[in-house]
Amino acid sequence: MPSKISQLVTGQKIEVQLSSSNVPARFYSEFIGAVNERWVIVNMPDARKYNDMRDLLQEKTPVIVRFVLENESGEICAFRSEISYVISHPTKMLFIMWPNQIEHRIIRKGRRFDAFLPASVSGQSVKGEENTFRGHVLDVSESGCRLKHEKPEGKIDELWENGSKIVLKIEQKNNGDLTLKAIVRQVKQVDDQLELGVQFMGNQKDEVNSLFSGSLVDIDELSRLESST
């Protein structure tokens, strides 16, 4: 069980649901750290997005915590616990009691293959703005892919969050442009780019098969990118 929490990285997005609420009250925040066998520590949710909910976050409030592990198999993990402490200094944080049990399940159906394909990412941001970014697919599986795109100015938590719906337009020389609808499951900042772990939406079997039927690496694009750095 501790190995699941130990695989979390600082700044990783997690979902916290207030399980005592009469309405579905949940928010997305960032993992700060953990004290083994005692606490899981997360940021207090952003006041601009979750101001009404912050008043509900008190000691002994029961919660459900969910997070995605981008390991070899890809897992979604969840546990029930309660808030132990709410502190304000040096920053506002929630100390969640160490869980007795973590439930987890595999989210990738098959093997993940390395790739390098130019792509564009389009979708509505957390703030409701329409965005399109250029990037590259880094690996693919039958159920999703990992990709990078340029990092815009501003805070990354105002762009995508777990559950954001996006459209990928992947460029393959043999198959032309391939369009896939996907859901963001993980967001990380890597240097000056954003790295997304995304899950393909259902009823796109033909499109996914088309992706695998062509080359997964664009040699010309890879050479061009390496020569420009």
CATH architecture classification name of the largest domain: Beta Barrel
Cα-based radius of gyration, to the nearest Å: 19 Å
Task: Summarize the main sheet.
Answer: 6 strands, antiparallel, barrel
Uncertain ranges: none
Mean pLDDT: 86
Structural class estimated from helices and strands: mainly beta
Question: In CATH, what is the homologous superfamily of the largest domain?
Answer: predicted glycosyltransferase like domains
What does this structure look like?
Residues 10-99 form the Type III secretion system flagellar brake protein YcgR PilZN domain. Keywords: Bacterial flagellum, c-di-GMP, Nucleotide-binding, Transferase. Residues 125-210 form the PilZ domain. By secondary structure, this protein is mainly beta. The chain folds into two domains: 2-106, Electron Transport, Fmn-binding Protein, Chain A (Pnp Oxidase, Chain A, Roll); 113-228, Thrombin, subunit H, CATH 2.40.10.220. It is built from four helices and 13 strands. It has helices spanning 2-6, 47-54, 205-213, 219-228; strands at 13-18, 25-35, 39-43, 62-69, 75-87, 93-97, 103-106, 113-124, 130-140, 144-150, 165-172, 176-190, 193-200. A six-stranded antiparallel beta barrel has the order 1-2-3-6-5-4. It starts with a helix and ends with a helix. The model has no long low-confidence stretch (mean pLDDT 86).
Compile the SSE list and pairings:
Blueprint: H1 2-6, E1 13-18, E2 25-35, E3 39-43, H2 47-54, E4 62-69, E5 75-87, E6 93-97, E7 103-106, E8 113-124, E9 130-140, E10 144-150, E11 165-172, E12 176-190, E13 193-200, H3 205-213, H4 219-228
Antiparallel strand pairs: 1-2, 1-4, 2-3, 3-6, 4-5, 5-6, 5-7, 8-9, 8-11, 9-10, 10-13, 11-12, 12-13
Keywords: Bacterial flagellum, c-di-GMP, Nucleotide-binding, Transferase
Domain Type III secretion system flagellar brake protein YcgR PilZN: 10-99
Domain PilZ: 125-210
